[in-house]
């Protein structure tokens, strides 16, 4: 292609269902299969549950000592707005930040007050998400880990705004890797 186009050509990753995204998905699934990992697909229903509890994923019942929650933000469905911003699967506290102020108290503000008219300015609504400790464990309103073996990764983790700061899949890949390692280390 580079020869035909007469310019350097590179392939970049993007969202599924882009072709590079589909290839990455296929490569990940092949790697998981080779590593002997069983992949279960379906909606995780775990309201009120915690690592160590038996939960349902689609038609399967799963028991795991550690969990990594990576359900995305508004597009993925990890975050919803029912009056206040809420984490949909486990009901974890959601934090928003505006200027020097940050905390779960901002998550209850009207959406209009978490967005600003200048679209180039930081949009508090779009960086809302879970607050985590250095091990990527979600924190409660007092800053304590919600559970010692519960981890979060990807867009669900707050504090970055992929639409304007260029983080995007970089955060998802890095935090997924770190959270997965942390979860595996705790069994
Ligand atoms: C329009 C758009 C364009 C973008 N373009 C780029 C780009 O060019 N480059 C870039 O780097 N980033 C881009 N991003 C950002 C990037 O897509 C996200 O940062 C990334 O997808 C986050 O990955 P994630 O796995 O954390 O969440 P998601 O990709 O949102 O994945 C979360 C998954 O969890 C599933 N899920 C949610 N709840 C449950 C549940 N209870 N049970 C089971 N599954 C559940 C969802 O169905 C979804 O499949 C773009 C984002 C958007 C919206």
Q: Can you walk through the features of this model?
A:
This protein has a domain at 65-187. The protein is of the alpha+beta class. The model has no long low-confidence stretch (mean pLDDT 89). The strands form four sheets. Strands 1-2-3 form a three-stranded antiparallel beta sheet, with no helix packed on it. It has helices at residues 2-5, 19-34, 162-165, 169-186; strands at 44-45, 54-57, 60-63, 67-69, 79-82, 84-87, 96-98, 101-103, 150-152. Bound molecules: flavin-adenine dinucleotide. Residues 14-15, 43-44, 70-72, 75-78, 89, 154-156, 162, 168-169, 172 line the site of flavin-adenine dinucleotide.
Strand content: 15-25%
Low-confidence stretches: none
Query: What strand order characterises the main sheet?
Result: 1-2-3
Task: List bound small molecules.
Answer: flavin-adenine dinucleotide
Would you tell me the structural class of the helices and strands?
alpha+beta
Radius of gyration: 18 Å
Number of strands: 9
Q: Please state the average pLDDT score.
A: 89
What is the 3D shape?
globular
Report, as a whole number of angstroms, the end-to-end distance: 47 Å
* Element-level helix/strand string: HHEEEEEEEEEHH
Helical proportion, percent range: 10-25%
Largest sheet: 3 strands, antiparallel
* Count of helical regions: 4
